[in-house]
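Lecture notes, part 5. Sequence design as translation. It can be helpful to think of inverse folding as translation between two languages: the language of shapes and the language of residues. The source text, in structure tokens, appears below.
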């Protein structure tokens, strides 16, 4: 913690690509996934304070790390870590054209690290820097029952209930008839007292999504996530008028401008930005604030991200008035479970169906460097 007036000058920025294998058979409508990747970002200051961030880099993490180290880092060294907004704009200027893609995902990792650095310098958790609302624990849902055989989905549903979750997300895919049957079977297994959401990972055409949406409403599902392509805003408008189940989306959005298309016309009831994709804590905070202004709920997308993303998402969940529920992956992920010295955002941390928010300075987590060395790919 800085005890005297300091500019918190940045001395170094380093990006480290990581990849780890995950449980065999992890599957969504888009296919089977055998590994997860991310980039760990380290921001150091002349005061001896170091903050950590995470960039979503599902594929090609070395390319992301190279971009951060060679293009973004030179824009930051010598600057004040306190000037997070100004630095965001400087990094944004690295490429012309519309915001999105690899650039904003790379910025996200640096931005999270800057917030961690400032929090450590001031001796406060990030949720207090954001003007927290006093949450020390947050509601969560188990994510996700795999798109698999009916028997496997039933087995996972029982497993999740036994872990103490009060809400669960189910992956669905094609064909439609099988998706509806899967949704029915999971509902039968967990009973009426458990909230259920469904995630299609944009598997459906508009007409198929209408059919599945009607079935999910009849089965009392809580939400229907990404039923169609993320950029089909007109399709979401049609679904909003046609089906009664609440729609959710936003993990594919990079900026406030992208998310605004879904929020301002209330095309979704839940917006789900991923802090490791959507420009970090700064941009995700603005998405959540816009959602609050339009009475849309905010639920952080975490997915197969690592521990730093989980910690940053918990900090946002603790601070944002529009927050509704946190995505807690119940299947083991080494980049989340081993990357910090203490678990963060894991099912093993549940307390009465809620997750604790780290209360230490910054993100409230410490990096396990043995795990970093084990999973680094450069």
């Amino acid at each position: 913690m800085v005890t005297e007036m300091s500019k918190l000058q940045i001395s170094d920025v380093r990006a480290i690509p990581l990849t780890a294998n995950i449980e065999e058979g992890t599957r969504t409508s888009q296919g089977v996934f055998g590994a997860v990747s991310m980039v760990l970002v380290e921001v150091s200051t002349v005061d001896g304070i170091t903050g950590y961030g995470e960039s979503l880099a599902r594929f090609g993490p070395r390319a992301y790390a190279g971009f951060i180290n060679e293009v973004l880092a030179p824009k930051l060294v010598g600057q004040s870590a306190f000037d997070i907004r100004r630095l965001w704009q400087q990094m944004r200027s690295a490429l012309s054209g519309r915001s999105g893609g690899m650039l904003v995902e790379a910025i996200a990792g640096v931005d999270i690290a800057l917030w961690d650095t400032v929090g450590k310098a001031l001796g406060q958790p990030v949720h207090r820097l954001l003007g927290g609302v006093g949450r020390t624990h947050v509601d969560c849902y188990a994510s996700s029952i795999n798109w698999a055989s009916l028997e496997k989905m039933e087995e996972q549903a029982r497993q999740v209930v036994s872990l103490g979750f009060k809400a669960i997300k189910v992956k669905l895919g094609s064909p439609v008839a099988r998706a509806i049957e899967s949704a029915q079977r999971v509902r039968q297994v967990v009973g009426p007292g458990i909230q259920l959401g469904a995630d299609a990972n944009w598997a459906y055409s508009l007409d198929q999504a209408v059919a599945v949406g009607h079935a999910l409403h009849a089965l009392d599902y809580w939400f229907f996530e990404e039923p169609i392509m993320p950029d089909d805003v007109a399709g979401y408008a049609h679904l909003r008028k046609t089906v009664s189940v609440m729609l959710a989306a936003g993990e594919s959005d990079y900026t406030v401008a992208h998310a605004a298309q879904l929020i301002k016309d209330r095309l979704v009831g839940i917006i789900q930005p991923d802090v490791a994709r959507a420009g970090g804590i700064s941009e995700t905070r603005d998405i959540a604030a816009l959602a609050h202004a339009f009475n849309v709920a905010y639920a952080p997308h975490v997915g197969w991200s690592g521990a730093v993303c989980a910690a940053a998402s918990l900090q946002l969940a603790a601070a944002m008035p529009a927050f509704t529920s946190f995505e807690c992956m119940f299947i083991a992920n080494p980049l989340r479970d081993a990357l910090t010295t203490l678990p963060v955002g894991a099912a093993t941390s549940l307390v009465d169906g809620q997750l604790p928010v780290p209360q230490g300075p910054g993100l409230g987590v410490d990096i396990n460097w043995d795990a970093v060395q084990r999973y680094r790919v450069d």
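The translated text above is only one of many valid answers, since several sequences can fold into similar shapes. The domain at 128-367 is CATH 3.20.20.120 (TIM Barrel).
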